[in-house]
Amino acid sequence: MAKAGGSSRHVEVERKFDVEGATVLPSFDGLWAVTRIERLPTQILEAVYFDTAAHDLATNLVTLRRRTGGPDAGWHLKLPSGPEARTEVHSPLGSGTGATDVPAELLDIVLAIVRDRPLVPVARIATHRDVTMIHGIGGTALAEFCDDQVSAARIDPGDGNPVDEQRWREWELELIDGEVDDATVLLDRLGNRLLDAGATPAGHGSKLARVLGDSASDRPGPPTDPVHRAVAEQVERMLVWDRAVRADGHDAVHQMRVATRQIRSLLQAAEDQFGLTDDAWVLGELRELASVLGTARDAEVLAEKYARALDALAPELVRGPVRQRLVDGARRRYQTGLRRSLTAMRSARYFRLLDALDGLVVTQPPAADDDRPPANIASSYRKVRNATKTARAAQGAAHDDALHRIRKAAKRLRYVAAATGDEGVASRSKTIQTLLGDHQDSVVSQEHLMQQVDAAHAAGEDTFTYGVLYQQETAVAERCVAQLDVALSELRRSVRQARRGGRAGL
Questions:
Q1: Which of 336, 352, 371 is the last residue of a domain?
Q2: C-beta of residue 62 within 8 angstroms of C-beta of residue 224
Q3: Distances 157 to 55, 120, 385 between C-alpha atoms, Å
Q4: Which of 371, 390, 415 is the last residue of a domain?
């Protein structure tokens, strides 16, 4: 169980079952994995659930509650984490500023969902719970079986009074270790005993979902247009990585930045379909967000790059405090960039960008007979071809800039090809994007090394190792350029195949 500040988190893997009131409890006798059954004292649980008035958390399959009673009383935030799994973040009861104020650390996790909309009580659920602990070989606790008698009601947002009171019985089966090997097999075998006893798989994902019913907003279905669908998927992906950035997860800033730039590329490739122009506000905001995230991302890349490079060098080639300057310095810049990113991600400006993206996702594409052409492979490939011509005529720093423009054009082509289902063009475009991404990282690294050489020289330090690393980066950049022509030729062939297959939009 990971801990951060006053909170803790773990992965919860469970199944819920509907059961009639008079159904006899299941038996777990005879299962090879079960050695002992332990009945625990009855628990009386009282929980108040919080959400926005429009139930934004519930729409995104997230629940937030304040529960009293039982061994884990406190604030519980549950986030989707794959099939049958959720990540639960727990904070103590007193972690809010008031008895019913959501703890700031939990609110921050879901800030991209709720934004600046207030969280209010939306349901109250009381549970009379009889718990059976299922133990395995060596006495290890395997799972917890709960027989719940539930009394629940929605809370009227106007006067705060309970409405639509309900009562039901349900069973829950939760693994103690949600990340154990063969978790699905264990759940299946234990769950079969519940089914044999007369239970049926629950018709709701959570108690709250049953209480809210139709009052919660339904998750919208995926758009039918491929580009709109791709944008919707990337917006959802960006929100997932938003949470990871707030938790300072490894590579999270990079992945959120990738999603941000992919959204922008798709919107640029299909501006007419989204009712946008080249100077649209949302495109500028996406570019600015990617730039803010880029500070931390570039520092994280450099820290990892220099750590690997220095570890690979013979000890006698590593001279002076080069690791402190390159690796430790980059890590400090990452923390500075992360703080700047988090400040931006807690701003009203960021919330309005997310609102705008929500609106674009549901924008209806133009009719099929509209004069405006849809995003297609051919038009996106022309940008790659034009950027390539410019690069071949450029030299020095201008050549590096032109190669970077090829990369951006190839990236946009890749996203359009992936959205329209042409895996060949998408794969060839990704190859170019990767090659020129490595080239760009090497260019950035060379510039950074030169700055550090100047600082080290001024401090009277040995600068030999910086030269070794600079030469390695130069070699990387040269290899990328040497492989580019072949990659571009393969992309050209893939685009021609797409044209012959009628997939290039010509």
A1: 371
A2: no
A3: 11, 8, 57
A4: 371
From residue 75, give the alpha-carbon distance in Å to each of 46, 125, 468.
Answer: 12, 14, 53
pLDDT tens, position by position, for the chain (506 residues)? 334 446 788 888 899 999 998 899 999 988 888 999 999 999 999 999 999 999 999 999 999 999 999 998 999 999 988 777 889 999 998 766 555 689 999 999 999 999 999 999 999 999 999 999 999 988 899 999 999 999 999 998 777 888 889 999 999 999 988 666 677 888 999 999 999 999 999 988 889 999 998 666 566 667 778 888 889 999 999 999 999 999 999 999 999 999 999 999 889 888 888 889 989 999 999 999 999 999 999 999 999 999 999 999 999 999 999 999 999 999 999 999 999 999 999 999 999 999 999 999 887 766 554 444 455 788 889 999 999 999 998 888 899 899 999 999 999 899 888 888 888 999 999 999 999 999 999 999 999 999 999 999 999 999 999 999 999 999 999 999 999 999 999 999 998 888 776 554 43
Confidence (pTM): 0.84
**Residue 274 carries which DSSP code?**
G
- The DSSP letter of residue 326 is I
Determine the angle formed by the axes of helices 329-345 and 281-312, rounding to 10 degrees. 160
Judgement on whether residues 35 and 123 belong to the same structural domain of the protein: yes
Alpha carbon 456 to chain centroid, angstroms: 39
Q: Are residues 38 and 61 in the same domain?
A: yes
Rg (CA), the chain: 28
Q: Do both 70 and 211 map to the same domain?
A: yes
d(CA 93, CA 156): 24
Distances (CA, A) of 137 to 17, 133, 141, 177: 26, 13, 9, 15
Give dist(CA 125, CA 70) in Å, integer: 14
Whether 129 and 188 share a structural domain = yes
* 389 shares a domain with 301: no
**Structural domain containing residue 77:** 2-215
Cα atoms in the 13 Å half-sphere on the side-chain side of 326: 31
Q: CB-based burial of residue 392 (10 Å sphere; 0-12 exposed, 13-18 middle, 19+ buried)?
A: exposed
Q: How far is the C-alpha of 214 from the C-alpha of 218, rounded, in Å?
A: 8
With CA atoms as reference, report the closest residue to 413 among 402, 428, 399, 401.
428
Do residue 332 and residue 392 come from a single domain? no
